[in-house]
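Final report, closing paragraph on structural work. Over the funding period we assembled a curated collection of sequence-structure pairs, and we close with a single example.
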Amino acid sequence: MSFNTLGLSPELKQAIESKGYTDPSEIQQQAIPSILQGNDIMAGAQTGTGKTAAFALPILQRLQNDESKRRRVRTLVLVPTRELASQVGDSFRSYGKNLRFRTSTLYGGVSIRTQIDKLKKGVDIVVATPGRLLDHLDKKTLDLSELEVFVLDEADRMLDMGFIRDIKKVLKYLPEKKQNLLFSATFPKEIQTLANNLLNSPKKIQVAASNSTADKVIQVIYPVDKSRKRELLAHCIKEEGWFQVLVFSRTKHGANKLASQLNKVGIDANAFHGNKSQSQRTRALKDFKDAKTQVLVATDIAARGIDINLLPQVVNFDLPYVPEDYIHRIGRTARAGQEGKAVSLVSADEHKLLSDIERLLKQEIPRKIIQGFEPTQNLRSAPPKPISRNKGKGRTQRSFKSSGKTKPSRSKAAWHQKRPKKKFSNK
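Its predicted structure, as stored:
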């Protein structure tokens, strides 16, 4: 199948071709025709499957079919992070470069006055985070009365970040008659309930198994003592010539500390997390994309919006508490048809977390002992050390047919429950 068969206008096909894309991804093959038919959509898709184009292209086509309402907000896309808002907005501008529509991105950390001035001039598409969108709605600087399409992107991450209440507030401002498109990697009970209340006889789409990893991701475990993780990471970066490395830390403090330690040994590194100002985050991400910074140390939530096609290495400095987050992390590499490597530095106290990840993947990840960094404890024999998550509880992975029931936690320390290829490379 090619994009020529999906009913898109010559202007949109030209924009697609200019990016070098010829074949739509699976989510695009299923979603684009259905959205063009006016159906509500409930789509299960991981980051990196091409889902942004799966809704951006048919939305632009719909707007193009009726240009009499230009400069009135007809499309609203709600996303969890500032970075994702910026990237989705850029996607709409890129695919719509041959059209005459205006896209505005609304998120916190920057001047609201500048956003208000742009809205006054008239826009067709708004991409926003929940908090800043509500600011505009409260100030009456945004009129959504003529909204035709509402997109809720990465709904499960919205839930994880505590945005469900804000989303419900936003929905009260939207007209009842509209097309609704919901995209989520997983479908815990709260998202299923939200979908049932929002969507009208939705077309259900599920691409790739929720526990699948990119086909071209080479996964490997480096067993190492906890006290020597930083030293091993620096060794690998220098000795193996890693030039663009996304490193995951569990905490903001940990990210700051690790970035500082790497800088002290001559490795250019930046921390990337929610406590950074928007200008700091924007600059850090740009420097990393431009290869001015060798290492970006990020937390899970902050990294959700990072979209870098040619990212060769992802490193789990700390294993995530929720196994599905491992899949989200390593899915940052091996994009655009490229190969990528996902390295996890695993200490004996993370044995239980590793076991949960391998159980989700239904496979054992290969181990490799790095000479000079031999661990003093074996991963298999070391007893797991309970680790508590700061916020909330893990979510249980569910398909569309989920019963919505969760398993009881195994202990007070709460090892978290499970929550749960592409030809086209745009997120």
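Confidence is low (pLDDT under 50) at residues 381-427. The CA atoms of residues 9 and 335 lie 27 Å apart. We thank the funder for supporting this effort.
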